[in-house]
Amino acid sequence: MTRSRPSLFSLVLSLPLLIWQLAFFAFPLLFLIAISFWSVRNFQMTPDLNFGNWERILTRGTFWDAYARSAMLATASAVLTVAFAAISFAYKERGK
Fold first, then answer.
1. Range of 80's domain?
2. Do 47 and 82 share a domain, yes or no?
3. Which residues are listed as membrane-spanning (predicted)?
4. Are 35 and 44 in contact, with CB atoms under 8 Å apart?
């Protein structure tokens, strides 16, 4: 079985979503990653390639505490969501 290629019309219809994703997700994320390698002295940002900011964040306990709490909250919400979905599918009303 061969896959059909997407039509030009469907690609054109997906352009607004692509532009939205690039404008509000990809570009800001890339910008934040780029400036994370800069250094700040006397309220001036200078673009030099150093890993001091990353080292400072990753060696502090506060970051790892916040990361662990975020992971626990994400896990708890995923478990609760799956449980509620399973219950709602298990007791679905007949005929609807």
1. 61-96
2. no
3. 12-38, 71-91
4. no
